[in-house]
């Protein structure tokens, strides 16, 4: 796909003309602040993408995907039934410095009611929409519920409270950081996070549009004075600040467009007329600009809370597309559901990671996620998708409590495996929430590694290949096989950084365990192709790690990023697909592991949303170690002469029994330079010609009949 660059306008704080407003409104605003900033979303988005070019690219790609989805839906919707109602779980984080900022639960309940009324068009003032726009206003068929389960599936009210000492905590980034005095985000794939806190500066609220949020900030922020209704500050005491900001969170622009006003700006929605600028107060319809009546009563304008009342059908389409494309996890979230009977596997404690034994006893943690005490359940488990085994569990677990359960001993072969464990029939009933039943974890067994040499060119269709294992923590883009580029053959391994807007995300892929013992040297090579997208400040990173203690500890053996990683000098403004000349061979000395019989090597990739990275032709080779037996120990059995020699060499050998005989010549580095083999012999005289070799020290090794002998010779 093509990366898109929107024109990002640096926006100024919005000040509002109070001309024509009622005197009580003017007085209220004057008492509240000399300047009220109704919405600070555009400024926050502009600030975020200015600091981080990755967000600029992510936002552009997300917007393009949403627009494409809308066009596809226009074609697919013909003849279909009405769309389903989307329900979004909400968690409200109240971060307070003073008692007044610690708003009541009632304010939260009021705000949720306002959201549901406004988005389902059941608000009491819906009938106030002018007849001019009566044909385009719409029920968005989006609803909101306070979460009943937290990210750990424990019961919750959907409200958190955090006391802080940070003044105006919403002005920076501290509000979404527990370490900085706020509270960390709940999984934004399952929850709409709303932080209610002290903002200062006259700001009512802000959010980030899809794709533009810094890590941990993907939610809505509302000044505590403007959240809910009872006790909120007029004229913004109708809960509409949250309605407005949630609209931005679902990818709506202001009705006058993304900029600072002007009839050349458009909000991307066809049924909202062009509008020159924001309105404030309570204007009288019709108020016109750009040649038509303006829809100032739209929730995405800046009028007082009691003067806005509607979304349009086009805005509905845009918001629902944003959910389907950018926030699809909300549609399957079970955060608002708590069942009476609900058991699950919260963790697989063993096996995990790398193991050096073929037999093990699985241990899991079973948890009661339901409202009723858990007294029985069936634990089901399987390895590598094989036969399903079961074990009955009985006990007495109150809500949210856990218990350790050991399953029968299992035996598996060397290589990569996957164990999956799940519960069923809690208290003999159907499980109320199947989403938390199951847990899976990969593990690798290596009892002695594969003999060298090792090679992988990714020509086989199975990926990862047998014996390999992969880790993809975010279940998104990860290491994959591709046939669009290769150094040799028809395939390679690659990371699709072009379409992976998850900067900082790590993915791993591990080779089978390797036996490097009895080696003099070990060398790893692989072909690499990578290009940068940005001139500076951003780069994906490639690291290699090795372990010789079954994965207990890892040593970094390779790391490159930026220009050091790139194999082409020029920046690539389109998706990078290397040609033959774009590859570079990387070489790593692994001789430190020459005595290890079980060495694991893994590739680690750290994404920074730059450009594609390719790996091909992995080769790990060794030169055998020299097992020198002195001549005195083998006197009478081996005689090599003349020594020194000019090239012609006699080898007299007597084996203890009839067997295959192998005579191998090594140079001083331990590299094999020649070999002679004779089958089913007791010994004899053998002549070697070393005249083609350079002068120096060599070793002649003779093996056969259960013995191995070696002698040093000097070639003149």
Tell me about this structure:
With 716 residues, this protein is mainly β. It folds into 4 domains: 23-332, Collagenase (Catalytic Domain); 343-445, Immunoglobulin-like, CATH 2.60.40.10; 450-623, Sandwich (Jelly Rolls); 631-715, Sandwich (Immunoglobulin-like), CATH 2.60.40. It is 13% helix and 33% strand. Strands 1, 2, 3, 4, 5 and 6 form a 6-stranded mixed β-sheet that branches. Strands 20, 22, 23, 26, 29 and 31 form a 6-stranded antiparallel β-sheet that branches. A hairpin with a 6-residue loop joins strand 32 and strand 33. Helix 2 (41-51) packs across helix 3 and helix 3 packs across helix 6.
Strand content: 25-35%
Into how many domains do the coordinates divide? Answer: 4
Class by SSE composition: mainly beta
Task: Give Rg in angstroms.
Answer: 35 Å
Q: How many separate helices?
A: 8
* Gross geometry: elongated
The CATH superfamily of the largest domain turns out to be Collagenase (Catalytic Domain)
- Spans of at least 5 consecutive residues with low confidence: 1-34, 626-636
- Provide the helix percentage: 10-25%
Q: Roughly how many Å apart are the termini?
A: 64 Å
Based on the structure given, which CATH architecture of the largest domain is correct? 3-Layer(aba) Sandwich
């Amino acid at each position: 796909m093509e990366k898109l660059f929107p024109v990002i306008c640096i926006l100024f704080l919005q000040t509002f003309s109070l001309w024509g407003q009622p005197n009580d409104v003017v007085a209220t605003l004057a008492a509240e602040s000399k300047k009220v900033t109704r919405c600070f979303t555009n400024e926050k988005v502009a600030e975020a993408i200015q600091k981080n070019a990755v967000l600029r690219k992510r936002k552009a790609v997300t917007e393009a995907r949403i627009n494409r989805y809308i066009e596809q839906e226009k074609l697919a919707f013909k003849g279909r039934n009405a769309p389903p109602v989307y329900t979004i779980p909400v968690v409200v984080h109240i971060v307070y410095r003073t008692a007044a900022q610690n708003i009541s639960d009632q304010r939260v309940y009021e705000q949720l009611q306002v959201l549901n009324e406004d988005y389902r068009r059941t608000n009491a003032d819906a009938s106030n929409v002018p007849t001019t726009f009566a044909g385009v206003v719409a029920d968005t068929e989006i609803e909101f519920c306070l979460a009943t389960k937290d990210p750990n599936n424990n019961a919750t009210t959907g409200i958190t409270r955090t006391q802080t000492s940070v003044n105006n905590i919403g002005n920076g980034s501290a509000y979404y950081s527990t370490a900085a005095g706020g509270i960390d985000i709940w999984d934004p794939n399952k929850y709409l996070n709303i932080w209610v806190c002290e903002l200062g500066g006259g700001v009512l609220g802000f959010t980030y549009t899809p794709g533009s949020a810094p890590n941990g900030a993907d939610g809505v922020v509302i000044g505590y004075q403007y959240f809910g209704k009872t006790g909120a500050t007029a004229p913004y005491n109708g809960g509409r600040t949250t309605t407005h900001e949630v609209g931005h969170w679902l990818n709506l622009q202001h009705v006058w467009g993304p900029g600072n006003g002007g009839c050349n700006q458009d909000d991307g929605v066809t049924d909202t007329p062009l509008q020159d600028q924001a309105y404030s107060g309570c204007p009288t319809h019709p108020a016109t600009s750009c040649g038509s009546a303006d829809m100032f009563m739209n929730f995405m304008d800046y009028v007082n809370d009691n003067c806005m009342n509607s979304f349009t059908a086009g805005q509905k389409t845009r918001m629902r597309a944003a959910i389907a494309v950018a926030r699809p996890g909300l549609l399957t979230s079970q955060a608002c559901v708590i069942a009476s009977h609900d058991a699950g596997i919260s963790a697989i404690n063993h096996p995990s990671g790398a193991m050096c034994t073929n037999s093990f006893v699985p241990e899991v943690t079973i948890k009661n996620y339901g409202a009723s005490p858990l007294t029985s359940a069936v634990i089901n488990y399987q390895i590598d998708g094989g036969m399903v085994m079961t074990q009955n569990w009985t006990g007495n677990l109150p809500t949210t409590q856990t218990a350790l359960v050991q399953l029968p001993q299992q035996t598996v072969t060397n290589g990569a495996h996957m164990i999956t464990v799940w519960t069923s029939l809690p208290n003999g009933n159907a499980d109320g929430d199947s989403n938390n039943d199951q847990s899976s974890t990969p593990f690798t067994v290596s009892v002695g590694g594969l003999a060298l040499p090792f090679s992988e060119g990714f020509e086989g269709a199975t990926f990862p290949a047998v014996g390999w294992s992969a880790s993809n923590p975010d279940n998104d883009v990860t290491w994959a096989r591709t046939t669009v580029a290769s150094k040799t053959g028809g395939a390679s391994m690659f990371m699709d950084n072009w379409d992976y807007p998850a900067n900082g995300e790590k993915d791993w892929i591990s080779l089978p365990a390797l036996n490097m013992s009895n080696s003099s040297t070990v060398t790893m090579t692989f072909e690499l192709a990578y290009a940068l997208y940005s001139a500076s400040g951003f780069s994906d990173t490639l690291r290699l790690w090795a372990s010789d203690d079954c994965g207990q500890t890892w040593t970094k053996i390779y790391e490159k990023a930026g220009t050091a990683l790139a194999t082409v000098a020029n920046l690539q403004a389109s998706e990078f697909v290397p040609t033959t000349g774009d590859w570079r061979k990387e070489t790593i000395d692994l001789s430190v592991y020459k005595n290890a019989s079980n060495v694991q090597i893994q590739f680690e990739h750290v994404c920074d949303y730059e450009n594609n990275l390719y790996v091909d032709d992995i080769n790990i080779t060794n030169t055998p170690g020299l097992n020198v037996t002195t001549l005195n120990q083998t006197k009478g059995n081996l005689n090599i002469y003349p020594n020194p020699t000019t090239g012609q060499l006699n080898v007299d050998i007597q084996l203890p029994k009839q067997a295959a005989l192998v005579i191998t010549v090594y140079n001083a580095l331990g590299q094999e330079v020649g070999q002679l083999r004779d089958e089913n012999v007791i010994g004899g005289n053998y002549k070697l010609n070393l005249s083609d070799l350079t002068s120096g020290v060599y070793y002649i090794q003779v093996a056969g009949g259960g013995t191995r002998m070696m002698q040093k010779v000097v070639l003149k």
